[in-house]
Amino acid sequence: MYPAPLIEPAVERIQRIFHPAPLATLRPDSGAHFELYLAVPTRGGVKYLLYKAAEIEFTEKKRLELMENGVSTLYVSDQDGGAYCHFVDRTVGEMLASDRIAPKEKSRVLYETSRSLVQSAFERPESPLAVSTNQRVVTHTVTALAAEPTLLRTLVSMFTFDYSLYTHSVHVSVLGTGLLLEAGGWPADDVRDVAMGFLLHDIGKSRVPPDILRKPGLLSPWETKQIERHPEHGVGLMRHHEVMRPRALEVIHGHHELLDSSGYPRHLGGKNISVETRVCAVADVFDALTSHRVYRPALSGHDALRLMLDRMSDKLDDDILHLLIHRLGPNGRHAV
Ligand SMILES: [Fe+2]
Ligand SMILES: [Fe+2]
Q1: What are the residues whose beta carbon lies below 5 Å from ligand 1 (ion)?
Q2: 168 C-alpha vs ligand 2 centroid, how far in Å?
Q3: Same domain, 95 and 161
Q4: How many angstroms is it from 160 CA to the middle of ligand 2?
């Protein structure tokens, strides 16, 4: 009889880390050559079961079966993180460049992909994979909006009225990017950097207790304070990620600052708020007003802009508000 080993083999003790790979990001029949796992709840937490080996194709049939069974997310292990990120980058790029896909379908896929990737970032804000996969898709979105300005309207027409943090993040990113491009004079790299700030401007809300975030009634002063900490939480979470540039961090930190210094957390005045941060504030307020909330129904685009012009002209940048009116025009969900 062999004596029991004194030390367990190292491989047994290594805990593998799994990252969400939402179905919306897994374009079928496109060469997903990495392992995919299913998360199965257990009494103690969750375990990951191999769903597809690397050499097996992820097909449309598999995707539909998963959806029928209520599965919206598969998982990749740490070692396949780079392959997954590269896959999303490649397939989104190919989809946007394809002549055979209609603009409306491109917008739908981009919107769904972005929404589900933002959700992954909110669930794992510390994960470099979650943030860098978002950055790949943001880069494609900015490039596509710069090349084809009418895509903005098609994307905006996809916006859901129902408010969620994830759709709100995508809306602010799309509107903010459209506004920067409309303003002109912005080098493409700067727009891409800033767009990551738009997309993840509320990431700090992942650190605010959910019962406070979802509370329908009036908030107590202590609860309000917890919510008002989200810009600083956001900077704290994002500053370690290489892809988050200083301009994006400043947008996250400053998106609730207002021109008359009545904003938070630093009570900055007009001159100290960067143009891109003002753009984020306008897009943020506009999207919040045009979404259904538990405490009030959605306003039309026209009514939201009217309210912003009439009642917030000392708080929001007037030039940016007029750019928004000009950019969205008389059609779509946000008819003005
Ligand atoms: Fe916010
Ligand atoms: Fe927001």
Answers
A1: 202
A2: 7
A3: no
A4: 15
Residue 10 has pLDDT above 50, yes or no: no
pLDDT at 329: 61
Task: Please report, rounded to a whole number, the percentage of residues in the chain having pLDDT higher than 70.
Answer: 93
pLDDT at 260 (0 to 100): 95
* Cα–Cα distance list, 140 to 11, 89, 148 (Å): 38, 8, 12
Do residues 139 and 162 share a domain?
yes
pTM to 2 decimal places: 0.90
Quick one: 76 and 121 in the same domain?
no
272 and 307 together in one domain: yes
Residue 199 CA, ligand 2 centroid: distance in Å: 9
Residues 41 and 92 in one domain: yes
Residue 11 domain flag: no
Residues 94 and 195 in one domain: no
Compute, in angstroms, the gap from residue 189 CA to the centroid of ligand 2.
23
Among 101, 124, 148, identify where a domain stops: 101
Residues 26 and 109 in one domain: no
What spacing in Å lies between the alpha carbon of 203 and ligand 2's midpoint?
9
> Do 285 and 199 belong to one domain?
yes
How many whole angstroms from 184 Cα to the centroid of ligand 1? Answer: 25
- Average pLDDT of the residues in 321-326: 89
Range of the domain at 49: 16-101
Which ligand minimizes its atom distance to the CA of 198? 2
Domain boundary among 39, 66, 101: 101
